[in-house]
Every structure is written in C-alpha cells, then in structure tokens.
C-alpha cells in the first residue's frame, strides 16, 4: 500500500468511494450523489488553494482518500487560517487494514509542514467506528452539537473531534 497525492485521474475513484457512502450511511449529510464534474472542480480548487488531497493505493487501485480544507472561511476570518477540517474515507473492502491510519498520519504530516495548529473532524454521532478511529489517531471529542443535521427522516448530532498538530509550545 502507498499513499500519494491525488491527480485528476483519481477523480472517478475518489468519487466512487464517496458516493458509495451516500445511499446507506449518515457519514455525509446529503442524499444526493456527487456528480463527477463537481468532484473535478473540488480537486482543482483544493490544488489551487494548496490543500492536500491524498489517496491510498493497493495493487494499483485507489482504496481510500483524505483531504482537508478551512474549518471556517479563513479568507473572511483570517484568524481561522491555522485550523483545518479533514475528511477520510476507506473502501469497506479494505477497512481495518491500516489504510485509514496511513492516510490520516500522512495528512497530519502535511498539516504540520503547512504550519497548521489544529485539525478537526466533524463526525455523525452514530458513526462510532469513526469516533473510535479518531481516538486511536490522537483526536479527542471537544463538542457535540445536537440536532444540527437531518438525514433519513431524523435529526442528527455532530461530534467535533480535535487534535493539536503543532508542537506543544507552538
Ligand atoms: C473510519 C475509517 C476511515 C477507518 O479507516 P480504517 O482503514 O478502517 O482504519 P485503520 O484500519 O487504519 O485503523 C486505525 C486504528 O483505528 C482503529 N479503528 C478503526 N476502525 C475502528 C472501529 N470501527 N472501531 C474501533 N476502532 C477502530 C483500529 O483498531 C486502528 O487502531 P490502531 O492502529 O491503534 O491499532 C473507515 O472505516 C471509513 O472510511 N469509514 C467510512 C467513512 C467514514 O466514516 N469516514 C470518516 C468520516 S468522519
């Protein structure tokens, strides 16, 4: 397995991983699949803004991806420029084999290199697997916002998990 930067050729695989989660899970609070052109535009914007997009490859196939972006709009509110919100998804066929860890550790390294201070994951409260995963990667729950989302006919809570990536005195 290797982790590398995504290229436009990875768009179908990235979109496939994301869209596979939409109909049956509450990982993302939308019921609409992402069109390929929207994902292409997202990748171009991420690259333009120097936000990392990483993919994990096993035997030539992309089986996971991870990325981050502003936590809140750091152009409008520059005080947020050291804080990012990340996303990480691994194919169910390859879950539990260390790919999520490899992706998130690589993403943390990028955050350190880019001088970021804090990384935040926003996770549906029912996604206990992702909450445990983030705990294993050094994240801790810092907030839980109640009934802030809606999917599959019911209100949903979001759990914010945070890890400081800057050195202790940074
Ligand atoms: C959450 C997710 C990214 C984890 O990726 P993964 O490749 O299965 O995780 P790994 O195999 O790298 O596990 C890393 C660590 O987390 C722990 N972990 C992972 N999933 C876990 C679970 N469901 N329950 C408890 N611990 C878990 C592992 O035991 C492992 O611990 P260790 O390395 O300290 O021994 C993956 O399950 C996924 O993509 N889920 C669907 C999408 C999603 O929820 N994304 C996150 C949205 S916020």
Describe this structure in words.
This protein is of the alpha+beta class. It has one domain (2-164): Gcn5-related N-acetyltransferase (GNAT) (Aminopeptidase). 27% of the residues lie in helices and 34% in strands. It is built from 4 helices and 7 strands. The longest helix has 15 residues, at 99-113. 22% of the residues are buried. Bound molecules: coenzyme A. Coenzyme A (COA) is lined by residues 21, 27, 88-90, 95-101, 121, 123, 127, 129-130, 132-133, 136.
Question: Which helices and strands, and how do they pair?
Answer:
Layout lengths: L1 E4 L5 H9 L16 H13 L4 E6 L2 E10 L12 E8 L8 H15 L4 E7 L3 H9 L3 E12 L2 E11 L6
Parallel strand pairs: 4-5
Antiparallel strand pairs: 1-2, 2-3, 3-4, 5-7, 6-7
Helix pairs in contact: 1-2
Features:
170 residues; alpha+beta; seven-stranded mixed β-sheet; 4 helices; 7 strands; 27% helix; globular; binds coenzyme A
